[in-house]
Write a sequence for this structure.
């Protein structure tokens, strides 16, 4: 009897960790992102984090870790314990583009992180100012063709989403233009509005006020479908078939995070994206909520990595 009692106690002791694992999450979860407070990624991360909290029964704490083109946040999440308590809000730049821009990256996102699911996909918008006479995308492309390389376009920085989207459009159209990088979308748009730069491809939040004041003319959006907010603006693909360039946002965790924990996080993400207020806030940012799960998100990352590597190589893009 004494021996059986000891064995029973031992079995109970061994089973305790398994029971503890089932209690996930038992404390707040950190959500790191690679950009400073106040931007579009920050707003989306905080919107999703707040909405996931009730489904998880814990607070999701957003932490900003800008720097090195997004690589700092990626490295910190990749080195965290794979227990579900540290997540990353991944963007197409750090997840798919940086490997082509930074030759000595210390972390490969594709092998160091497990995707949970895609949060949202946000098309960019092609805009022109007074330096261009174009009122449609075909007219802008004709201006670029006639100028034989002297047309200028602005971007938020070398290798940014705005730079890559424009480079891809020019490559697919067989055209050349002069790239003028800035330190952020705001200064770049200021020069487009002032008539110093011909055009720019940028995010909707950065330009919506300028569109409403008629300071800029919108020519096309870069997604594969027209935006609900601007249904009258055509897609670039309506002029250049198969073109697509979007900024996307998705959740990832350290490699090796147990599948039940990943499933719990994905379920909380789906619950958040089913919230009408969350959907409204995302769409106000020009982002369309996604249903893509972890495997689908992983495939998107691989596809984006291959296509942008070609664009970076052909356009000879380097980081600042």
């Amino acid at each position: 009897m004494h021996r059986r009692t000891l064995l029973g106690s031992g079995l109970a002791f061994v089973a305790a960790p398994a029971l503890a694992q089932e209690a996930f999450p038992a404390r707040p979860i950190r959500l790191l992102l690679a950009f400073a407070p106040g931007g579009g990624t920050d707003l989306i991360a905080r919107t999703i984090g707040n909405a996931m909290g009730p489904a998880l029964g814990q607070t999701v704490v957003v932490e900003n870790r800008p720097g090195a083109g997004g690589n700092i946040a990626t490295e910190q999440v990749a080195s965290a314990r794979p227990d579900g308590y540290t997540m990353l809000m991944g963007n197409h730049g750090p997840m798919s583009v940086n490997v082509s821009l930074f030759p000595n990256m210390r972390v490969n996102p594709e092998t160091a992180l497990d995707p949970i699911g895609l949060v949202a996909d946000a098309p960019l918008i092609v805009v022109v100012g007074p330096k261009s006479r174009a009122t449609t995308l075909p007219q802008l492309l004709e201006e670029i063709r006639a100028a034989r390389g002297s047309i200028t376009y602005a971007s938020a920085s070398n290798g940014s989403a705005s730079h890559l989207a424009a480079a891809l459009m020019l490559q697919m159209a067989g055209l050349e233009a002069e790239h003028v990088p800035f330190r952020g979308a705001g200064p770049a748009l200021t020069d487009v509005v002032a008539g110093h730069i011909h055009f720019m491809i940028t995010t909707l939040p950065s330009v919506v006020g300028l569109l409403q004041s008629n300071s800029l003319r919108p020519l096309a959006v870069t997604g594969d479908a027209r935006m609900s907010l601007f249904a009258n603006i055509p897609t670039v693909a309506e002029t250049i078939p198969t073109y697509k360039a979007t900024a996307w946002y998705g959740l990832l965790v350290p490699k090796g995070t147990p599948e039940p924990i990943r499933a719990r996080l994905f379920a909380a993400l789906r619950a958040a994206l089913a919230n009408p207020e969350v959907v409204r806030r995302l769409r106000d940012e020009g982002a369309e909520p996604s249903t893509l799960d972890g495997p689908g998100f992983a495939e998107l990352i691989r596809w984006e990595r291959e296509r942008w590597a070609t664009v970076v190589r052909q356009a000879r893009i380097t980081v600042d």
Remarks:
- The first strand starts at residue 29 and ends at 33.
